[in-house]
């Protein structure tokens, strides 16, 4: 395949699809796991009211939680990947729904954990650590939980909030089904009158085209189509706002921002300082945009002019095989142990490579390293896709090493550090590519591409879907990039929300 032909899932060559049999040999085996997981709520209930009774009881509880976390992570991972490979497949959408229902049920069954651990006196907990040295493995988790004392509710209320977890996923599921399964776009023409198929996957390459007619037609067709569903977008966004506010209010946070950041122990001030730093340096962005306008020779710079290379005739086709080879060369500086795992990922089908009908857009790495993470791509034969590959493999390697070498309860990394590994890989790739050429035009092309990373990438947000340790299921954004599928639609939806929905009953 070349990334240009969009096939039904059933016709995609196997070697370009992920092999989920590494998790479960078949759907039937997954269903067997579903039945096995139903036994855990009773086992968990046996600990209710007893976590403060003794060191061994507390250790046994954490050991059981680790066991559940690994099994649920694999269980949800399989179902989510199956559903994302074709969101129009109702069977796998049903499987995904069962997976999250099961996860929520287990979350609810263990919802007493937070309040009971919170109630253990400091001196008693100190004695537990002395009596049972293995509890030290869980000290960090315990400290994080106890730090949030002001936001932990009674066992009864915690159970209600846990049970509401599945409902809170509805806005995201609605958007995913609508955007990936139902949305269709008209064909567009280029300057020569040739017809091009516009999809979520082909939109990005079109915006990077040197053909301004194609860029303009693709941009206008894409967002005109999105604009036809502004009420749907607005209603979905409104539902997301309300569920976030509900949980923030229920846990006595001052804002949804504070609630989101507190989970990762990031003060609101740190977040606002980052935003202020960006705002304080926008003059550099303005200079770059002016330079882009001048080089492109346009009277007015439009959004469809922002991502096309400003260096003419320097872009080249890069096959997926070439992208993998270059990635291995660029990341060799990280050592053989690193590249050995990378090669295993490439050869043993950890990746789902090309766009197919109904496939989830963008790119992501699953946040589960048992037995290993999986990576979803929508690869096109271009430089941007090669950078996406090394970016997502950065997440994959981070996850794999963390799960292999860390205890279960500390293997999961928070969103605030999630981009370190992936961004490092991108920098190493750029360093490698610049070191391979002395051609001024090619070097300018590469540097321009790298500069564009700082103003936001025109592709979907990568997602890490993690089953959190303890009794919490999280979805973590896995890339600090701008979603090209949502940006304009959300802005329009926000305007619609302000004028039509805000303050409504």
What share of the residues does DSSP label as strand, in percent?
under 5%
Rg calculated over all Cα atoms: 24 Å
Shape: globular
Ends distance? 51 Å
- Average pLDDT figure: 88
Helix content: 55-70%
Strand order of the largest sheet: 3-5-4
Task: Tell me the series of helices and strands, N- to C-terminal.
Answer: HHHHHHHHHHEEHHHHHHHHEEEHHHEEH
The low-pLDDT segments are 458-498, 500-505
Structural class: mainly alpha
> Total number of β-strand segments?
7
Sheet with most strands: 3 strands, mixed
Q: What's the tally of helices?
A: 22
List keywords for this structure.
single chain; 505 residues; mainly alpha; Butyryl-CoA Dehydrogenase, subunit A, domain 3; three-stranded mixed sheet; two-stranded antiparallel sheet; 7 strands; disordered C terminus
Overview of the structural elements:
The protein is mainly alpha-helical. The protein contains 22 helices and seven strands. Among the domains are: 9-164, Butyryl-CoA Dehydrogenase, subunit A, domain 3, CATH 1.20.140; 303-484, no CATH class. The strands form three sheets. Strands 3-5-4 form a three-stranded mixed β-sheet, with helices on one face. Strands 1-2 form a two-stranded antiparallel ribbon. Helix 3 runs antiparallel to helix 4, helix 13 (230-250) crosses helix 14 and helix 19 packs across helix 20 (419-435). The termini are far apart.
């Amino acid at each position: 395949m070349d990334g240009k032909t969009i096939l039904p899932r059933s016709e995609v060559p196997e070697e370009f699809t992920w092999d989920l049999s590494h998790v479960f040999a078949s759907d039937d085996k997954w269903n067997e796991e579903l039945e096995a997981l139903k036994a855990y709520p009773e086992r968990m209930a046996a600990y209710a009211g007893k976590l403060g009774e003794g060191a061994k009881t507390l250790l046994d509880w954490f050991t059981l939680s680790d066991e559940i976390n690994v099994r649920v992570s694999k269980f949800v991972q399989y179902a989510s990947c199956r559903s994302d490979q074709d969101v129009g497949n109702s069977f796998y959408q049903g499987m995904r729904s069962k997976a999250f229902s099961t996860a929520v049920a287990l979350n609810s069954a263990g919802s007493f954990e937070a309040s009971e651990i919170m109630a253990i006196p400091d001196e008693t907990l100190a004695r537990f650590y002395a009596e049972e040295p293995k509890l030290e493995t869980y000290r960090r988790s315990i400290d994080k939980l106890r730090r949030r004392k002001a936001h932990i509710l009674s066992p009864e209320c915690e159970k209600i909030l846990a049970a509401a977890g599945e409902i809170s996923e509805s806005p995201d599921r609605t958007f995913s089904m609508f955007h990936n399964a139902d949305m269709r776009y008209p064909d567009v023409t280029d300057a020569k009158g040739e017809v091009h198929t516009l999809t979520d996957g082909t939109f990005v390459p079109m915006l990077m085209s040197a053909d301004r007619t194609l860029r303009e037609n693709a941009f206008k067709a894409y967002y005109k189509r999105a604009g036809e569903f502004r009420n749907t977008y607005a209603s979905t966004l409104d539902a997301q706002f309300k569920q976030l506010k509900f949980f923030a209010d229920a846990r006595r946070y001052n804002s949804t921002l504070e609630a989101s950041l507190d989970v990762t122990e990031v003060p609101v001030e740190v977040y606002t300082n980052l935003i202020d730093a960006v705002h304080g340096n926008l003059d550099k962005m303005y200079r770059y945009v002016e330079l882009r306008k001048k080089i492109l020779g346009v009277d007015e710079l439009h959004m469809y002019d922002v991502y096309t290379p400003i260096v003419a005739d320097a872009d080249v086709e890069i096959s997926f095989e070439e992208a993998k080879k270059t990635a291995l060369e660029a990341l060799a500086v990280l050592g053989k142990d690193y590249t050995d795992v990378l090669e295993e990922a490439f050869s043993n089908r950890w990746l789902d490579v090309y766009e197919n009908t109904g496939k989830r857009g963008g790119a992501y790495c699953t946040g589960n390293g048992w037995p290993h993470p999986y990576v979803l791509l929508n690869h096109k034969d271009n430089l941007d896709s090669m950078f996406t590959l090394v970016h997502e493999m950065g997440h994959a390697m981070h996850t794999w090493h963390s799960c292999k070498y860390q205890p279960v309860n500390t293997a999961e990394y928070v969103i605030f550090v999630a981009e370190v590994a992936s961004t490092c890989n991108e920098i190493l790739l750029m360093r490698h590519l610049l070191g391979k050429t002395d051609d001024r035009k090619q070097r300018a092309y590469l540097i321009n591409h790298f500069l564009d990373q700082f103003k936001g990438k025109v592709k979907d947000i990568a997602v890490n879907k993690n089953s959190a340790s303890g009794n919490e299921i999280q979805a973590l954004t896995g890339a600090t990039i701008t979603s090209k599928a949502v940006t304009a639609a959300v802005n329009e939806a926000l305007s619609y929300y302000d004028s039509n929905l805000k303050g409504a009953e």
